[in-house]
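Q: Predict the bound structure with protoporphyrin IX containing FE.
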Amino acid sequence: MSKTKKQAPDGTDTTDSPRNVVGSSGTGVSRRRLLGTAGAAGATGLVLGAGGGAAGYAATRPEEPAALTTVGATEAMFHGKHQPGITTPLQARGHLVAFDLTAGAGRKEAAVLLRRWSAVAKELMAGRPAAGGPDGPGHDTGIALDAGPSSLTVTFGFGRTFFARTGLAARLPAALDPLPAFSADALNAERSNGDLWVQVGADDALVAFHALRALQKEAAGTARVRWQMNGFNRTPGATARPMTARNLMGQIDGTGNPKPADEDFGRRVFVPASPGKPQEWMEGGSYAVVRRIRMLLDDWEKLPVERQERVIGRRKADGAPLSGGTETTEMDLDKAGPDGRLVIPDNAHARISSPEKNGGAAMLRRPFSYHDGIAEDGAPDAGLLFVCWQADPFRGFVPVQRKLDRGDALSPFLRHEASGVFAVPGGAGEGEYVGQRLLES
Ligand code: HEM
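A: Predicted complex:
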């Protein structure tokens, strides 16, 4: 049986295995990441050559279980300073689910739920069944039988409305203030916000659904689903070499993300200590801005590729900036062509959103694509479940979206249909549950 690859919440590998490759930082890097992910969101910046050697499924003999592939065997760690699912490499499947507390459920019930959810998440992320749930021991649904952990992550967050409902208004962080309205918003309130938010990600669709179902069952009587969105990304191993993911417009998306190796990465993405302040419990946490952004694909696909590239400011084939180089070359925002015009146009999405043009504002974008069939208008109901992570949305998402809203060449092809902001507390230590520092403060 191949050894399970263990991944810390920051995406680094913690497997005690001689097969691991140790990077120059001294960080263990799993073979699986060499094979297929490279922090698909660009979160890690790793771009390494492919190698062979995935274990594959051996012929099954009852006395000798088949080895898991490296995809199935990869395990993300539940415990840690930060919750998993933030810097974890993008997974192939995702479910975003918001819950509202039921009438009569308050702080005590919420604490019981978070304790149970944490226990279930820990078991499932280790590839074990969700035994001991509301249906009693041994009542795992069996949906994920045969599969390994498959990089499953479960991430929990609190919405603004949670605090008043649980008598915790004094602990409401200012970072959860409602987002300003943007001119291009066409938001559906029923699919926005929510008391609690859960993000499930896994490299296997059945493993992801299994976790989602187990979490929904645990919530029965305490919280009910307010909205659910299902997404996907490229499957690890689908490309000849690890690459940044593409979105449904066909663009390489994630290149400009801050990298964990950047000196200011932690400061930008995670909440620092703030002893004695209302948000003290958020130390090590992060704020997730979630936007369901529909892509107007029928209009987009009519544009010739050169026009599409000018909308973004990068080449479609390889993500290189129009100012030249390769995907990872810095954009030269001042470069002009022979006609004297800027080669990365004034209204190009990558120019307008770049930290350089936003006083350094940056966020870690970690989206899933979605496709829910054909909408009433006859066009695909498809786009991006845009999830971005930052230490403060008012210094990350908000200033950038304000600028994009005013004159981004991409905006005419997008419609923001739902929105939510969630306080995602730091990771649970051993023996602790997620949110304990808030709920037992
Ligand atoms: C469906 C909607 C969107 C699509 C298809 C899209 C696509 C892209 C693409 C292709 C890039 C260039 C490659 C890269 O650096 O990742 C990019 C960059 C970027 N986008 Fe978007 N984007 C969308 C929405 C947004 C939103 C809502 C925001 C934030 C408010 C945003 C912020 C950024 C940032 C910060 C960069 C990196 C800029 C840099 O570092 O130079 N994007 N986006």
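A: The longest strand covers residues 380-390.
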